[in-house]
Amino acid sequence: MISTNLLLGLTTMARAELEKSWAITVQHLEAARALISASSAPGSDGGTLTQYQEFLEHNELELALDELADVGNGSSPPPISGADSAELQKIWG
Question: What average pLDDT does this structure show over 78-83?
Answer without folding.
Answer: 65
